[in-house]
Amino acid sequence: YPWQHTLETQLSKFNLTEIEAMLGSYTKVLFVRDPFQRLISTFMQGMGSSPSFSSFVQDVLDSGQHNASVACKPLVRLCQPCLVQYDYVVMFGFLRQELGHLLQRAGLPMDSLLPEFTDTQVQWTYSWLSEQMFSELSLQQKKQLSHFYRWDLAAFPFSSSFLSD
């Protein structure tokens, strides 16, 4: 259905037959990241107008799952992993390993296309940053965030997430 597909067209704009045909013709890759790390990244990129991380989190919680920005919305709501059968799920923090496997499966040369990733350094930095940012939040905010992202935490293996507790 390339004549109907534009960058702005959402899947929900098509009927069920068209959706099934389109999804069946694509290789579907879902990139997932710990929801708390997504919040930190969104805040650090200045995508919220809040002066502190705690007030930014409160703005996200107050907006609710339906009205949250795309950057903060739970992945399960955005990507519908229970409805769409993704061919690959790539976890942030394992990009080099997983993208190499994905390129190999696609028959592409791995080494020439992959940028140099420093997953270990990135994981350590986000671990430290998560600890600092998490300590800024009230106990109520921590509980509300865990509830806000409960389906993401259930759907994906974010075992070391600060929100998993």
Automatic annotation (TrEMBL):
GO terms for biological process: carbohydrate biosynthetic process; dermatan sulfate proteoglycan metabolic process. Keywords: Carbohydrate metabolism, Glycoprotein, Golgi apparatus, Membrane, Signal-anchor, Transferase, Transmembrane, Transmembrane helix. It is an enzyme of class 2 (transferase). One of its GO terms (molecular function) is sulfotransferase activity. Transmembrane segments: none annotated. Its EC number is 2.8.2.-. InterPro entries: Carb_sulfotrans_8-10, Sulfotransferase. The keyword Cell division does not apply. It comes from the Eukaryota. One of its GO terms (cellular component) is Golgi membrane. Its main location: Golgi. Belongs to the sulfotransferase 2 family. This is Carbohydrate sulfotransferase. The gene is Chst9_2.
